[in-house]
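anyone seen this seq b4? input:
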Amino acid sequence: MAAPLDVNIEHLNGSWVLNKALSSESDPFLKLQKVSWLIRKAFSFATIYIQILQYPIKEKESSEPSTKIDFIQTASAGLAGSKEERILDWAKYDHTDYFFGTVKGQSQFIYGAPAKDGTMRPEFELQTDTTSAEIKQFLRGEIELDWSKSPGFLVEAQDEPVEGETRGCWVHTFERNEKLGWTAEQVSTSDSGNISFFNWKLMFIG
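predicted toks r here
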């Protein structure tokens, strides 16, 4: 089923089902995050349901406007539900659940600028501690995991375009599990009008 055309990265409200046929295999990256074999096995058989609530809020300290996204996940195969809350102000927040443990994460909206090849690519500061230029190229949608050239993301128009020549809107997230010793960095956009609703590039560093 195609996502409605009015669904974009700034308006993700709705109930969704994870389409595993259009997703990469989950077990390798869940293993990197040290998720137990039993939970990974149950996840591979489960149907995953996600309710997304996205709404405006004010930052606690500055009262500046911000956005909050709640991901409420339920599943079959006996997996317990979970809830993840992201506030897009780039502040660090702690989140704990049975699946990933205790994670400190931060999220923000980011925007795009024209690349040398004329495509629009998200602009952001890489948080992953690495000297590999390919990691940022992958997260920007320039290359695939096999290093082949990537067509990149579907570029969306944002509600309130930022100044200059930038356009398009993405969510940039960086998370760290200090106890288990992994970090994850993600750049994502919705895919309005397509069979999937959420495209993302995700890189884990153990």
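The first helix runs from residue 27 to 32. The first strand starts at residue 14 and ends at 17. kinda curious what u guys think
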